[in-house]
Design brief:
This is Phage head maturation protease. InterPro entries: Peptidase_S78_dom, Prohead_protease. By secondary structure, the chain is an alpha+beta fold. The chain is 28% helix and 42% strand. The strands form two sheets. Strands 2, 3, 4, 5, 8 and 9 form a six-stranded mixed sheet that branches. It has a four-stranded antiparallel sheet with strand order 6-7-1-10.
Length: 176
């Protein structure tokens, strides 16, 4: 009962109530992911907890696309309901609760635009109506998730070994 997706997508412009546009800059979550205890909810409802980063049931990372999320859904009525709604395709998006700590405004266009450079992340939510259209959530099997992590670790190890071999060859040939 593992789900994965994106709670936020970099570079995607969204309208905030028609008052201004908002876009997330790459790196907006870098600092907060190092220290925050983030909760996962259903529809931003604090009484419907699905996971927590410090317990390991919520895993967050920032990549080139945005804020990647993986949640091990609990064996509760909410967890089972969320799973069913995702499997049926009724729910496909995510959202996040945050406090902006660094931003930039551009008021030269018809609609003001806020670029968010840094946030304090408080929560991520599986939602039926996300503010950012590019967010996503889908079922993942735990075995597939573990296999993907092993493959990523193996690829990283291969790169390290290749770099060591290249350095050794360069030293042998007197290039370094």
């Amino acid at each position: 009962m593992t789900v994965g997706g994106y709670a936020a997508v970099f570079g995607e412009v969204t309208s905030i109530g028609g008052y201004f546009d908002e876009v997330l800059a790459r790196g907006a979550f870098t600092k907060t992911l190092q220290v925050a205890d983030v909760l996962a909810y259903f529809d931003h409802d604090r009484g419907r907890i699905l996971g927590r980063s410090t317990s390991g049931t919520l895993r967050l990372s920032e990549d080139a696309k945005g804020l990647a999320v993986e949640i091990d859904l609990p064996d509760t009525s909410d967890g089972r309901d969320v799973r069913t709604l995702i499997e049926r395709g009724d729910i496909r998006g995510m959202s996040f609760g945050f406090r902006v700590t660094r931003e930039e405004w551009d008021e030269t266009g018809e609609t003001p635009k806020r670029t968010i450079h840094e946030v304090e992340l408080r929560e991520v939510s599986i939602v039926s109506e996300p503010a950012y259209d590019g967010t996503s959530i889908a079922m993942r099997s735990l075995d597939a998730a573990r296999k993907e992590r092993r493959a990523q670790n193996f690829t990283a190890a291969e790169r390290r070994v290749s770099a060591r071999r290249a350095n050794a060859e360069a030293r042998f040939r007197g290039i370094l």
